[in-house]
Amino acid sequence: MRVPEGAFRFVALDVETACSDAASICQIGIACVRADGGIESWVTLVDPQVRFSAFNVRLHGIGPEQVLGAPDFARAIAPLEPLLSRHLIIQHSSFDRRAIEGAYGVTGRAAPGWRWGDSVRIARRAWPEFIGNGGHGLGHLKEQLDLRFEHHDAGEDARAAAEVVLHAERRTGLGFEALLGPGRR
């Protein structure tokens, strides 16, 4: 599958991990949002080169057999770097950024200074009534916004995070930059 090309409004990114170590990325997914609201997705398995925990395998269904022959993190992220360096990256909570930074650290490289935003922050501004009433996790937003995706698949979760932002923009009449507000991270 080819990495989407071009200029996008933003790129949503999600990762799945092999174990409790955030750097143990075993899947990367992105969802690139075009000016017209269309979404181009891309996903790859990653060989984290660490042991998988039973909990994580049950959560996302990815184990050592699935990543056999997949690229390691350095090779998997390389084709994404030009795209991600040009766009604001939306994550759903701060986990994905921590995972990416941790995985870069394992390779001996410093993480790039990409611009990050959080769709949880956007959702809190668009749906304050969910605070203390189900929250702003993807599982609850899936129900409330009638999103259709397979949770705990990096490509699907990235697309869901992108759709949360688009729903929030429609609900509030504000663009994602305004919804993120100052101090985007």
TrEMBL record:
<dbReference type="GO" id="GO:0003676">
    <property type="term" value="F:nucleic acid binding"/>
</dbReference>
<keyword id="KW-0540">Nuclease</keyword>
<dbReference type="GO" id="GO:0006259">
    <property type="term" value="P:DNA metabolic process"/>
</dbReference>
<dbReference type="InterPro" id="IPR036397">
    <property type="entry name" value="RNaseH_sf"/>
</dbReference>
<keyword id="KW-0269">Exonuclease</keyword>
<dbReference type="GO" id="GO:0005829">
    <property type="term" value="C:cytosol"/>
</dbReference>
<dbReference type="InterPro" id="IPR013520">
    <property type="entry name" value="Ribonucl_H"/>
</dbReference>
<protein>
    <submittedName>
        <fullName>Exonuclease</fullName>
    </submittedName>
</protein>
<dbReference type="Pfam" id="PF00929">
    <property type="entry name" value="RNase_T"/>
</dbReference>
<dbReference type="InterPro" id="IPR012337">
    <property type="entry name" value="RNaseH-like_sf"/>
</dbReference>
<feature type="domain" description="Exonuclease">
    <location>
        <begin position="9"/>
        <end position="174"/>
    </location>
</feature>
<dbReference type="GO" id="GO:0008408">
    <property type="term" value="F:3'-5' exonuclease activity"/>
</dbReference>
<keyword id="KW-0378">Hydrolase</keyword>
